[in-house]
Amino acid sequence: MTSRIDRRGATLAVLCAMALMIVLDSTVVAVAVPTIQRDLGFSDAGVAWVVNAYLLGFAGLLLLAGRLGDLIGAWRVFLAGVASFTAASLLCGLAPTAELLVAGRFVQGAGGALASAVILGMIVRGYPEPGGQARAMGIYSFVQAGGAALGFVAGGIVTQSVGWPWAFLVNVPIGVLAWCAAVRLLPREPGQGLRGGLDVPGALLITAGLSLGVYAIVRTAEPAASTVSVLLTGAVAALLVAGFLVRQRWARRPLIPLRLLGRPWLLGANAVVVLVFAAGVGFQFVNALFVQRIMGYDALRTGAAFLPTPVLIGVVSLLVAPRLTGRFGPRPVLLGGLVALAAGLTMLSRAPVGSSYLVDLLPALLVMGLGVGVTIPSLIMLSMAGAARCDTGMVSGLTTTAQQAGAALGLAVLAAVAAGHTSRSGSAPLAALRDGYSLAFLVAAGFVVGALVLTAFVLRHPPAVEDPSPEHADTLSTVH
């Protein structure tokens, strides 16, 4: 029994190491973008594709990656993701041109999708008991928060001391070690086999639809993008997703079983994920602009100013959230966390032009850290609730897709809200900037209120673990 627990802990460490690498990469690269633009000659609009290319590769492949995990084994998909991400990191670090860097970022996003899509499912299967699962999700949230905290500071240090290529090259030794450890430690759980339902047309439709959808969202933040072209791209993305849903209705072996698409709980939980991540990621973007443009902080001081939030998130998710979830269940804990998150965003919206960090910013950041620290672990548990064992990869992929969609949506909407309100304001330039950021914080709080309403009225009765449909019954016995 002890060796089994030790092996589970080692497996969790491998999964969290990859999650850490992905989070670190995102935050470190975000800090390094201005230097990358200068060194490789990106235009102001073109440099956004250092981030956008990654988002397209990541978001577009998540659902397919999750389904592949169910079909060929999550461990195989995870290993492929780690290898691709590591190789692409090497390519990015050595890229001599802007075009090659963007291509490497797309491949890096694809590798991140393959690995990320199956992580949650593997954690849930490894820790089926509620107490153990709550602790594992707390550790997972702690690692992500710690990676964000480390990334903000490390990004400035790495870029200023050894150069932006090391923002990518640092992933290479970590990735090699993670891959070797995963080969040795990950459980070799058999998948259903490709005969279990690799719907190639459906996979192409949903991958193209999600990629175009993210492309439409990120283009809303580009000043040169016309409204007509953005709407047209969004409409094509919607048609592709609609075509995918029609395909799933008639496909002999659908990529996403209709019994999953018809579950109100799963749809509601993922809608909450979208709203929470839209608020959280959008807040990080707007708050970084507020601290630099209103308070006059440089990149390194901005990273240090952010530190209390991810540090508190890590401590709460690791030490407090599992105990609260074990005692009260994930739904009450999620409701309390959402209230705290909305309160923190509302406090930020009231910060004046001459803000004091200790008086106006730090209290709000601490409240948000407390809210996010209990929200994320409980929300992930609820999003995975009721999934049959043979569907955990697919459900994990859906949840991770919802996270990325929320992140892209939050960035685009809050950036547009802040910029639009600032341009229409008749106040002095600094006051106009502050007014735009304040409205963006309130919109983010509105996202959280929407998540609170969905949690209160849709996620009322957690589902029992679902039996698979008849065509998967033989598969489930094999998986068990």
Sum this structure up briefly.
The protein has 480 residues and is mainly alpha-helical. The protein is built from 18 helices and no strands. The radius of gyration is 21 Å and the shape is globular.
Structure description:
The chain is mostly helical. It has two domains: 2-198 and 253-479, MFS general substrate transporter like domains (Growth Hormone, Chain: A, Up-down Bundle); 199-252. 81% of the residues lie in helices and 0% in strands. The chain contains 18 helices and no strands. The chain has helices at residues 2-40, 49-72, 74-94, 98-126, 130-161, 165-169, 171-185, 200-219, 227-250, 258-261, 264-294, 299-306, 308-328, 330-349, 357-384, 392-424, 429-457, 473-479. Helix 3 (74-94) packs antiparallel against helix 4 (98-126). The longest helix is centred in the first third of the chain and has 39 residues, at 2-40. It is globular, with a radius of gyration of 21 Å. The model is unreliable at 469-480 (pLDDT under 50).
Features of the shown structure:
2 domains, single chain, 480 residues, mainly alpha, Growth Hormone, Chain: A, disordered C terminus
Relevant CATH superfamily of the largest domain = MFS general substrate transporter like domains
What is the distance, rounded to the nearest whole angstrom, between the alpha carbons of the first and last residues?
19 Å
What spatial form do the alpha-carbon principal axes imply?
A: globular
Corresponding CATH architecture of the largest domain: Up-down Bundle
- Rg calc: 21 Å
Output the number of helix runs: 18
Task: Name the average pLDDT.
Answer: 80
Share of helical residues:
over 70%
